[in-house]
Every structure is written in C-alpha cells, then in structure tokens.
Amino acid sequence: MLLSKTCQYGVRAMIYLATDSPDKYVSVRSISSALDISFHFLTKIFQRLTRYGLLLSYRGPNGGIKLSRPASQITLKEVVVAIEGPELFTECVLGLPGCGADRPCPLHHTWTIARDDLARMLEGETLDQIGSSTVRERLRLRHR
Amino acid sequence: MLLSKTCQYGVRAMIYLATDSPDKYVSVRSISSALDISFHFLTKIFQRLTRYGLLLSYRGPNGGIKLSRPASQITLKEVVVAIEGPELFTECVLGLPGCGADRPCPLHHTWTIARDDLARMLEGETLDQIGSSTVRERLRLRHR
DNA sequence: CAGTTTTGGGACAACAGAGTCCTTTTTCTA
DNA sequence: TAGAAAAAGGACTCTGTTGTCCCAAAACTG
C-alpha cells in the first residue's frame, strides 16, 4: 500500500474541500458524513494539516476548516508530504538507511527513476484541477 | 512506504540468493546473518515464498533453500507479488473499492499510469540481472 | 538407532497505525 | 451572560505487522 489510510482520507478530504465552497469554513462533521469517514479520525487528520499550514480552522458555530491557499496553488504532492512526510520521496525501497548515489542498493537506480516520475506527477496535479474534473465528470470520493 | 518490511527483507534475500551459489541449498541461518535480518522472521518469509513456489527447501544437515527456477526467469515483480499480493498493482490509491474505468476516483487515471510504469519496471528486472550488477558493482544488501 | 542439523509451523509479545471517546477551549447566538 | 456549536487535544481500545520463542518433522551422521 503506497499511501496510509490517514493519507488516503486526507487526500480525499482535501479534494472535497477544493470542490465545495472555496472560501467558506466547512465543518468537519459535514465532511465526515459526505465522505463516510469517521468523524473523530478525520478531526485528527485535519489537526495535522492545520498545524502543517495547509488548512485554516475556526472554532465555534459556523466554524470549520478551509484551504489556507487557493486550490490552484496546492499540489497533491504537498498534501501527501504533509501527511506521510518527505521521506516517502527520498527513502530507499529496500529500507536501507543512507542508500544514495554513493552507497546504493541494487534497486537504487530503478527506484529513483520510478519515484521521481511519481513525484513529478503529483507535483503536476493541483487540487483545483482535480476538484474541477471531479465535479465535471462526477467522479467519486466515497465508497458507496 | 511502498513495500512492507516483510517484502523488503524478502526482496533482499532473493537478490542475495541470486548472487550466492545458484544451485546449492543455502541455510536460512547463513542468509540471516549475511543480511542482518532476524533469523526467525526471515524463516517465516521463506516459508511463504516456498509455499508460493519461488523457493525450494530441504531439511536436515546441509539443507536450506534455493531458487526454484533460474534467476534469469524470476522477475522482481513476481517476488513483490508473492509477498504483498497482486492487489498492490490493482488497488485504488485512495482505497476506494471497485475503483476502475467505469467508476473512477479523481486520481484513477494518473495513478494507473504511474502504477503501470512501476509494474513494467519491476517486470523488466530479473533476479539474475540485479544479482549480477550487485556483484559487479559491489552494491549493498545490508545496513552497515 | 541416537543425536544433530535443518526447515515447518503454531503461539505469543511488542509495537505502530487506525479508530473511539471524553474534556477543554474558542466563538457565536439568544 | 448562559448555552450551544465547533475545533483542539489527550487518553484509550482495537487490529495488523513485526519480531521472538518453542516444539515438531525431516534428513543426515556417527
């Protein structure tokens, strides 16, 4: 599994935020029921994204969360890195510490290429683009 | 993390087997100390690979395990699939069940491309090729 | 045949990720 | 000002992965 459940939920929620009312604070409760994700668990994920700076939060009635920047300026990679950490795009596939150009593992070269391709792809996708196509083509963000 | 620890260990061990004496049975104990992997844990991994058919085992003194086929006929992808299961190369990145061309998630297209690229790469790498370059370039399979 | 060396496999401990629940803090509204 | 609504955050449970240990089965060696 490439992405942890936490990250899968986080990405789905960020895409949802990019499709729904861009500038309004949206309550975690409403997002959790729209996406069928445990409310309490989603709360934790949003707390991390808020601390990381990708979200703004506001307490009290009509409070909630919203993207801290325009969706056109947030890439998928940023969201993934915010949750999984930057190691995902630097680590050795075989888990060997210090694996790099100078002390490579047998898969270093191959994996570096594949991983960089993936990183480029994720950098090329903004929440805005994904959100738009999600709305336009009615793509799904939940199980059902 | 793309690969579980179990799979990382398994791949390292399979590459090791491809470099070391191709036709002799090698004891798990010697592999575990060569690669600095817990003996008991490695035993479990080899048991799975044996059941799966990638390894042959033999008990008793001078027993051990060896590749069931020439290293030139085992691809990296096979090893990964044997341990992680085929879902790794079919699953939705966002974890949505039934995600596919007909009911795609917003990342379906992008992810399909990236995942298929990766699968092709892993299919193109045989244990023989990796083993040879490991020996030739003295690449590392352990922490140290 | 007895003892030793090896893999096979079950049971268990330790740990991390996933998920739940409860209390506190902030903010709004009546 | 009192109550309600929302996020913040701590404590906890559950579950799967990782890792350890022990005993059984197979095969060899004296």
Describe the structure in your own words.
- Two copies of one chain form a homodimer.
- In chain A, helix 1 crosses helix 3 (39-52), helix 1 (5-19) runs antiparallel to helix 4 and helix 1 (5-19) packs across helix 6 (127-136).
- The first copy, chain A, has six helices and two strands; from the N terminus they run H-H-H-E-E-H-H-H.
- Chain A has helices at 5-19, 28-35, 39-52, 76-84, 108-124, 127-136; strands spanning 55-58, 64-67.
- In chain A, strands 1-2 form a two-stranded antiparallel sheet.
- The first copy, chain A, is mainly α and 144 residues long.
- The first copy, chain A, is elongated and about 55 Å long.
- At the A-B interface, helix 1, helix 5 and helix 6 of A face helix 1, helix 5 and helix 6 of B.
- Chain A binds a DNA duplex (30 and 30 nucleotides) through residues 4-6, 25, 27-29, 38-41, 43-44, 46-47, 50, 57-65.
**First-last Cα distance of chain A:** 21 Å
Number of DSSP helices of chain A? 6
Approximately how much helix is present in the residues of chain A?
40-55%
Average pLDDT across residues of chain A?
A: 96
Instruction: Write down the oligomeric state.
Output: homodimer
Describe the global form of chain A.
elongated
SSE string of chain A, helices as H and strands as E: HHHEEHHH
Number of strands of chain A: 2
Strand order of the largest sheet of chain A: 1-2
Tell me the structural class of chain A: mainly alpha
Q: State the low-pLDDT regions of chain A, or none.
A: none
Major sheet description of chain A: 2 strands, antiparallel
C-alpha Rg of chain A (nearest Å): 17 Å
Name the biggest interface: A-B, 39 and 39 residues
Residues in β-strands, percent of chain A? 5-15%
